[in-house]
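User: Hey, my collaborator sent me this sequence without any context and asked if I could get a structure. I don't really work with proteins. Can you help?
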Amino acid sequence: MKKRDIKRRDFLSLSLLFMMGCSFSKVQEIATSNYAGNHPERLRFAVTDVQGLETLETDYAPFRQALEKVVGIPIEFFPVENFIAAAPALLSGTVDLVFAGPSEYLILQAKTEARPLIAVTRPEYYSVISVRANSDIKDLADLKDKTVAMRAEGSTAGHIGAADLLLKAGLKFNEDFQVKMLGDEGLTALLEGQVDAWADSNSRYDRLVETANVVDQLRIISQGDGLPNDVFVVRKTLDPIFTQYVQKKVMEKQSILLTALASTPANDKYEQSEFIPAADEHYEVLREIYRAMGQEFILQ
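Assistant: No problem. I've predicted the 3D structure and written it out in structure-token form, which is a compact way to encode the shape of the chain:
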């Protein structure tokens, strides 16, 4: 081979390595700078447990406006009826960003391969099960052959966490006791004697009981361990570099964003929260509960 050809080959090789190095550096630059790369014209934002545009505006307008300024592109509300309705929206690309509870995240991830973005810590977030103060029920074992009001299918504290407490007490789910999914009507049903116990999150229990001024009429018989964090997820087809950019900006400006998030009455539960990077393995404990309930098929 001629010396000239060797030099030409070496030059081409070095040029290719240089371009690859530049490309990698560019990716790093995009991911760690204010440049958002190949971003959408707008982000469509849904919250799984909020129904209707009016309620979204009431509960999340300050956060939406703050997030819009932080990421630098318009953000639009996308109302969904529930987390089940959020799944096809994520798959079709009609929604980009979803705020979900821990159990809801598992279902969305299983059905749509949604990617966890940012978790919102909940320092005091656990399930409680209560009965009427004058009830003969003393502990969870006494709920055999009784009726328990829960919040909704897939609710983290008001269904999955509560089921875990009952299972650990030796009761078989959907066999040893009857479940009624009653949403916000669980407290009323308990007070009126329609059910024997009521399961929900500690924060919702406190708010509803205090609002109804019935603190002395109820008694908590069990409370669970801390539950995983709420989480923002993005659709799997959202540009990865842009996703990293959003995560970086949210973490940088979390003080502003968390203040906005917790500024409405419905979200004061986030007053002591922090943003942390979300990881799928943090939610494995809930997958184990689904398996114990015999409902692992929901996550397939």
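In plain terms: The radius of gyration is 24 Å. You can pass these tokens on to your collaborator as they are.
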